[in-house]
Amino acid sequence: MRNQVSDKNSSQQPDNSWLAELARTVVLSIVLALGIRTFVAEARWIPSGSMEPTLNGTPNQWEADKIIVDKLRYKFSEPQRGDIVVFSPTKTLQAEQYNDAFIKRIVALPGEQVELRDGNVYINNEPLQEINYLRTQQNTAIDVCTSGQQEAFLAQPQTIPPDSYLVLGDNRSSSYDSRCWGVVPRENIIGRAVLRFWPLNNIGGLDR
User: Which end of the chain is more exposed for a tag (fewer CB within 10 A), N or C?
Assistant: First the structure.
């Protein structure tokens, strides 16, 4: 009888196995999502207009372009000229109280000599062709470097150090970039912007 009563009571207890399975699924999903964001890719929004017309930015994240950043690519390959990269502030930028990540385009690679002449970028004494992403009549000069605490980096020709990159915004008249504060060490690069997913009417890859 005791066994019969025990069996009867057991059958009346709720089966919580589905709850445990749901909890495991939720936890696994969270872990995978965090792992993907940490090591593979992440979504970001563009907070300023420094990359216009390529990317439209605004302090209101609901109106700004939103992108996917590939964080895995540079584990296996070198950053290339033309890549749009997201990077953490350099030591110079941190000293100026910048804490949020920047987004700019790689213009010069390690070992290259860079200088500005008549509003144009020259790499190893050759003019850089930027027609694919710059508006016409863009002037690349150091007159935007008014807020820095040091002389503008490209006030004179510079040779890019090893494992470092010179980056500029596509909106040259409104971008605080390498012209002013210097190069970005590779270790600061978070990843390459590869896809715009918002707004919906402008979804697409971000080619060089």
Answer: N
